[in-house]
């Protein structure tokens, strides 16, 4: 499959070009939004890309906090389909459970299946949200299961929000 060749044999310059496309795509998306919503997404995306990974890496044991998980959900929902119930549900998770589940998940890396399963014990955290947590804290092992990226991969339609589907990408 052509996609496998790209992932295995890709060079740094190709990935740098892909990253530029992400930034351009986000700008286009933000420009199409209402001004306040666009500003919010820009701020949240910058936090997710730059601040959250550093915060997770600096901890003695990698994990995410409840406020970070709630902010991550807000970022994820502001990028795509808004589902207000998901935000409420993720906010109902106890801090201790968020920390313990995410510590367990990061300890499972590089076993992505097990890592995702550890995170999906949290309310409103499915494979896509779990992948965002893992991508922030272990980008060398996990990619975010963004709708756009999954839909762009040949042979992966229709999109399914399952661990098995995520692992195919």
TrEMBL record:
- Could you tell me which species this protein originates from? Crassostrea virginica
Q: What is this protein called?
A: Uncharacterized protein LOC111120721 isoform X2
